[in-house]
Known about the structure:
Layout (H helix, E strand, L loop, with lengths): L1 H4 L9 H7 L2 E10 L5 H4 E9 L2
Antiparallel strand pairs: 1-2
Amino acid sequence: MEQRLFDGCHLTRPIVDMLTTAGFVTTDLDVFYEEGAPKPMGADSLGIAVSSG
Length: 53
């Protein structure tokens, strides 16, 4: 449903898992919800991903 509402976006993809699978190592990861935003649209992951290769 979110693909139709948000022009193809997938709001529930496991971003950190996808980065790890692609060969990146995540550091300084902060996972949080934006204040005042609806939970499905306010989830954020902020950090650094470094290539492990």
